[in-house]
Write a structure and sequence with these properties.
Elements (H helix, E strand, L loop, with lengths): L1 H11 L3 H4 L4 H20 L3 H11 L10 H14 L3 H5 L1 H9 L9 H35 L1 H9 L9 H14 L9 H8 L11 H34 L1 H7 L6 H7 L4 H14 L3 H9 L2 E6 L16 H14 L9 E6 L1
Parallel strand pairs: 1-2
Helix pairs in contact: 5-8, 8-10, 8-11, 8-12, 9-12, 9-15, 10-12, 12-15
């Protein structure tokens, strides 16, 4: 007993230990503290609900029209729970005014969860649908005619080698980098949103538009990567020097079809179709291009002696650029034709 009285003296300032007697005032105060303790202990019985309430009320909701109703409930709950004493004193008041017994009960946690979950699930599903469309586009590119034609073109002697593997790897990496959700089921969403405002995948209303735009941008980048590579190859094969060589094969159906194309774009379309159906067309082309060598030259490698150019400097810069190209136009062997592709 002495230990208890000493502890009450140390922690609460009661003088029963010192005076060896209690006062009614201290007895009443202790009884009141015990009642408060019992209420707080009972209030903490709502630990799970309180954790959910704190998670949602501390979450910053974006100011977007579709969340207008949710934001109203959010503000109402936040304003009322600022003073928790009435709800600590009465668990019935806490249940009815804060937690709510059904989603139809306005401005309660139940109504907040109901409204928010419905909107979040719709946003989540729509976003995943949009991202999956982009993923499917890139998967189609990886197995499509264009990439097969690009691979076949690398067997043409006049075409630079190795880009097919680089492009395939880049598109695969772009596809794999898209946003994903490991479990997009309704049950997984509902379970997570009963605890916190975001699913396990981390998707939020604030990030949704950015994620979708990023997915679209990556899909466009994949498409552009293939288009640029095919266009460069079509430009090489449509060049006057290459067409002159190919004209030696007039009478060959494959060569006649190539020479009948009136633009690099038309030639590209023809090659994608013909090479994806019959890669042996490459063998026919190579009969007439065995001695053609294409060297890729990056314009960025050109380093003029002056960087700030005025009119009187043009001749000097042009001369230096000519020398830059001539240095790279060394014939690899007799009876071969070296061509530069500027990149």
């Amino acid at each position: 007993m002495d230990s208890i009285l000493f502890a009450l003296d140390s922690s609460l300032g009661y003088k029963a230990f010192e005076k060896d007697r209690s006062s009614q005032e201290e007895v009443d105060d202790l009884a009141n503290l015990l009642r408060i303790y019992d209420k707080v202990q009972a209030f903490l019985g709502f630990e799970r609900e309180l954790a959910t309430l704190q998670s949602y009320l501390s979450y910053e909701l974006p100011d977007i029209p579709e969340l207008g109703r949710v934001r109203k409930i959010h503000r109402s709950l936040a304003d009322r729970i600022k003073d928790p004493k009435p709800y600590v004193d009465s668990d019935l008041k806490f249940r009815s005014e804060i937690l709510g017994s059904s989603p139809d009960q306005n401005d309660t946690l139940q109504s907040l969860l109901h409204e928010y979950s419905a909107l979040y699930s719709t946003m989540h599903d729509n976003l995943l649908s949009g991202v999956e469309e982009c993923r499917a586009e890139m998967a189609k590119l990886l197995t499509g005619d264009e990439l097969r034609a690009l691979e076949a073109m690398e067997a043409i002697s006049a075409i630079p080698k190795g880009e097919h593997a680089t492009i395939s790897r880049k598109i695969a990496e772009l596809k794999d980098s898209l946003f994903s959700c490991h479990d997009p089921s309704a049950s997984s969403l509902n379970l997570a949103l009963q605890i916190r405002p975001e699913h396990d995948c981390g998707l939020s209303f604030a990030r949704a538009d950015g994620i979708l735009k990023d997915a679209r941008s990556r899909a466009d980048e994949a498409r552009t990567t293939i288009d640029d590579a095919l266009n460069r190859r079509a430009e090489i094969l449509y060049s006057p020097a290459i067409r002159e060589r190919l004209s030696q094969g007039i009478g060959e159906p494959a060569i006649d079809a190539i020479l009948a194309c009136h633009s690099p774009e038309e030639l590209r379309s023809h090659l994608v179709e013909s090479l994806s159906e019959d890669p042996s067309v490459v063998d026919v082309i190579n009969r007439y291009l065995k001695r053609v060598v294409i060297k890729a030259v990056k314009i960025s490698d050109f380093q003029p002696t002056i960087r700030t150019v005025e009119r009187e400097h043009l001749e000097r810069v042009v001369s230096e650029f000519r020398k830059f190209l001539e240095d790279r136009l060394s014939e690899p062997e007799i009876d071969s034709r070296l061509m530069l592709q500027l990149e």
